[in-house]
Amino acid sequence: MKSFLKNAARVKPSQNQLRMLRETPFYAFVHFSPNTFTNLEWGDGTEDPAIFNPTELDCEQWAKAIKSAGMKGMVLTAKHHDGFCLWQTKYTEHSMKNSPYKDGKGDIVREAAEACKKHGLKFGFYLSPWDRNSELYGTDEYNTYYKNQLTELLTNYGQIFHVWFDGACGEGPNGKKQVYDFDGYIELVEKYQPDATIFHDTGTLRWCGNEAGSAPFAQWAVVPVELCPMNKPQTSGALIEGDISFSYNSDVAIGSLETIIYSKGLVFTPAETDMSIRPGWFYHENEKPHSLERLFNTYLNSVGNNTTFNLNIPPMSNGRFNDEDVKRLNELGKMLEKEFGTNLAENSKIEILPGFGVTQPEYIVNLNSIKKVKYIELAEKISEGQRISNFQIFTKNKEGYWDKAEQGTTVGSRKIVKINPTETDEIKVRIMASRDVPEIEWIKVY
Ligand code: FUL
User: What spacing in Å lies between the alpha carbon of 165 and ligand 1's midpoint?
Assistant: First the structure.
């Protein structure tokens, strides 16, 4: 058991995963397609390209609003399930070519990529494998068609930081289903954009399991290879022989001991939490943006819970973000700055005590003077793997005794723990259980 857990503790991220977790944990999705004009969530592919006409398109407005929330990148739906392409593609007429926008010469992927570059954001795209317009869908030729489109997007729009392969799929226009060549798709991304992360269950980031922005409480980045079958396992052999089956809806956290003991091998694949600022992924006039509180809590539960956060903002049919969404993004950025802008432990000495043994040390953070504390941020040295499975946090009270402030399970790349606001000058983090000797990269206090 001990060596099994030690092996699990040494499963490490790739450079791309590490970069995403450390530098770009918060980024934006932008869902824009004929659905924006038909008021639908899923188009059926029969939409007339002439309806797609954003008369006031302003990708710089998107970029500025996204930046104001503290996000570091934008992922645009280059093609959604309806098959309409937002760029000048050689491979279909169901595209900008037949839209009145700029007399058929428009290229929204280019405009978005350029706006990102100008405003210091990374750029990525979503390319739906499910295509309800292409007559080729359901045949081998469709895989060639898809790869041709992917190649256009990977080679003509500068550096791509994230490629999003949607898992939703159904029948094409001829009632056929497609057997996707994901090996081939991923090979192209690796060839043309080796630094890009890939969202897909076979890629570098996996789905968190829902679209409500609520990642399960315990978040492991080390998960069974059976869940992410294209990743190379870094361990071999199950602890217990048996059948492994997964349910995203189960109460058991994926990657916890209960789920890894039956796995044939473990991979490093952290989750991405995705949700929309409004109920729909596409813009609908009758919907309102979620509250600031909901967005902030989702941030805590995603970026602050060892996952990345992909927050969607849907442009309106005129091609602009709604003012209410822009305002909400601004408010979110201000709130994140207010809550996490100043690390109260910036100049603190962190003392490590033996605690209850090598896997259960204690960390004492001396704040030098009494401060009002609302959050403690813990980070494991994730480049070496994820280990901690249980911890407790204490604050020292006026009488010099330790009060228990919170407890938690996993830490991983970043765990932001909210506590009842407390005046204190010393904080203790006690590791209760860890798969191997824990390595803490930082403890920040806000
Ligand atoms: C899902 C899609 O069906 C939705 O329309 C949306 O794009 C979401 C992000 O992924 O699978």
Answer: 10
Strands 162-164 and 388-396: unpaired
Q: Which residue has the tokens 């009145």?
A: 100
Let me know whether 11 and 151 are in one domain: yes
Nearest atom of ligand 1 to the alpha carbon of 276: 9
Q: Are 279 and 390 in the same domain?
A: no
Report whether residue 50 contacts ligand 1, using a CB cutoff of 6 Å: no
Q: How many Å lie between the centroid of ligand 1 and the Cα of residue 213?
A: 13
| Residues whose CB falls within 8 Å of the CB of residue 247, separated by 6 or more in sequence, listed in order | none
Pocket test for ligand 1, best of 39, 166, 169, 275 (most atoms within 8 A of CB): 166
Structure tokens at 35: 């659905």
Ligand 1 atom at shortest distance from the alpha carbon of 41:
5
Distance (Å) of CA 369 to CA 187, 230, 282, 366, 376: 54, 51, 49, 8, 16
Sign of CA dihedral 257, 258, 262, 266: negative
Q: What is the pLDDT of residues 102-149, one digit of tens each?
A: 999 999 999 999 999 999 999 999 999 999 999 999 999 999 999 999
Full domain range(s) for residue 103? 2-340
R_g of the chain computed on alpha carbons:
23
pTM score, whole prediction: 0.96
Number of independent structural domains in the chain: 2
